[in-house]
Structure formats: C-alpha cells, structure tokens
Write a structure and sequence with these properties.
With about 260 residues, the chain is α/β, with parallel strands linked by helices. It is about 35% helix and about 25% strand. The protein contains seven helices and twelve strands. It has helices spanning about 10-20, 55-65, 115-125, 140-150, 160-170, 205-210, 215-250, and strands at about 1-5, 25, 30-35, 40-45, 70-80, 90-95, 95-105, 110, 125-130, 130-135, 155, 170-180. Strands 1, 2, 3, 4, 5, 6, 7, 8, 9, 10, 11 and 12 form a twelve-stranded mixed sheet that branches. α4 (about 140-150) links the parallel β10 (about 130-135) and β11. It is globular and about 55 Å long. Mean pLDDT is about 90; it is low at about 255-260.
C-alpha cells in the first residue's frame, strides 16, 4: 500500500524526519520524501502554506501514471485552536473539513473524513474535532479565532484542499494536526506579511516585521519554541499512527473512500 502524508513546511516535518530515515526523491518541482515499512511506501510532500492542492494533484498524477495511486492521504501539520479546552501540543483529528468557499468540483464547502481513520487516531490519543476550518489567511488574533469558533474547533490552511485531491484520486482521507497556538492567544507578528512567492515563511520578511516592532522578538522566540514542541508531539503521534495504519489497511480486502 501507499500512504501520502502532507505538511505545509519543512519545520512541521523535520522532527519526524529526524526520527526515521526518509529518502529525498528526485521529483522535479516537488519536495518529496519516501520511507518503506515492510511492503508499504510512505511518501511525504511539502505543499507550501495555503491552497497548494496543485502540488498534491501533480503528485497524484505522476504516481497514477505508474502502477497505482495512493491508498490513504493524511493532511498533517500544525494548527490553531478555536476551543479553550484544546492545549498546546494536543493532537486533534477532524471528522469534518470546512472551506472558506464552495468548491465547484465538489459543489460544497465541506468534506467528511474517513471514519475508520479518525477512530484509529482517537484510539492513539488524538482528540476528535467536529471540524477543521481551512482558512485563506493566517488568523493572528484571539478575536479572529473567537469569531470563527462557531464554525469549527481548529483552524489551519491546507487540509480541505489536500483531502479533496486525495478523494478525487481514490484515496481515503484524514486530517491530523498538533495545536501550536491556543484559542486565547495572539500570534507575535502578522505572518500573512511574511509569505514568500512559494508560500513559505520568509526569514528576511520575518526580520523586517520584528524590526518594525522590536517588542515582538521575545514573543516570536517563544512562539517558535512552542511550534517546535508541537511538531515533535506530532512526530511521535504519526510514527505510531502510520505504523498501525499500514497494518490495518493491509489486512483489508478492499479500500473504501468515505467522502459523502
């Protein structure tokens, strides 16, 4: 079987890559790694921040042009809490994904994730979330999060698009995230101003934001530490989850996509 795990940026993936040997793949235009577990292949692709479903679509097309496509697609990474009872480093799994607009190809702004994959995540200690909201921009203040809390429990920027593409190619889909900022927490700077042309956080632009307001330096360092801690918690979870996922799906006679 083949499992695809996506992260937005290298910092989210780095702790897991440090724990296990992932081999960088020669895939033009894609940041792609591969690891083998028994007879299964685990692929990791970095999509960039926000709607970069084109990267996932291109990967799906390349793999489908070979012998077979992916069996499971896991959208992963860090996220912001919209509930006060979610704490830093909590692992959360979505039963529903919501988008900030109606997607013409599916005719709605929501997707259900695979029930069995959600249940497996919960069995490994993930907290179930009624919904993740895939936002167009980074929510930088507690007030912005509060306004969105009626719609979802967690906010991030990639899961809807990633899982939608996985479904289109016949994969089962799930979204699993680690909480890197609390619902009542403002971010130290406006990260929307720091994005590079390839949808990554630009260090020079971060430094420019700090230069405008030197008082943000200490909070930014603190936020960096808690983000690394959340990524490490996610790596520990994914290591156990993916290993059991491989065994679970490999024992099934057929793969059923849950995407109503």
């Amino acid at each position: 079987m083949r499992v695809l795990v996506t992260f937005a940026v290298e910092a989210e993936f780095a702790p897991w890559r440090a724990r296990r040997k992932f081999v960088r793949q020669n895939a033009k235009g894609l940041r792609l790694w591969k690891r083998v577990i028994g007879n299964s292949e685990i692929f990791v692709v970095l999509t960039g921040i926000g709607d970069n479903s084109a990267n996932v679509m291109e990967l799906m097309m390349r793999v489908a042009a070979g012998d077979r496509c992916f069996d499971v697609c896991v959208s992963s990474g860090l996220a912001g809490a919209l509930r006060l009872d979610y704490h830093l480093n909590d692992i959360v799994v979505a039963t529903l994904l919501k988008s900030n607009f109606v997607h013409a190809d599916v005719g709605r702004d929501w997707l259900e994730t695979d029930t069995q994959l959600v249940e497996l995540a919960v069995a490994h200690g993930a907290k179930p979330a009624r919904a993740f909201y895939t936002a167009e921009k980074v929510l930088t203040t507690a007030e912005q999060k509060s306004l969105l809390a009626t719609k979802a429990d967690v906010v991030e920027m990639e899961s809807f698009d990633v899982v939608k593409e996985g479904y289109a190619w016949g994969a089962r889909g799930v979204a699993i995230r680690a909480i890197s900022d609390r619902a009542d927490e403002d971010l130290p700077i406006d990260f929307n101003r720091t994005m590079s042309s390839d949808n990554r956080v630009s260090v020079p632009r971060v430094l420019a934001e700090v230069a405008k307001n030197p008082g943000t330096l200490a909070p930014l360092i603190r936020f960096g530490k808690q983000s690394r801690s959340a990524a490490e918690a996610l790596a520990r979870f994914l290591e156990a989850y993916v290993n059991e996922l491989v065994q679970l799906v490999a024992t099934q006679d057929s793969v059923q996509v849950v995407a109503r």
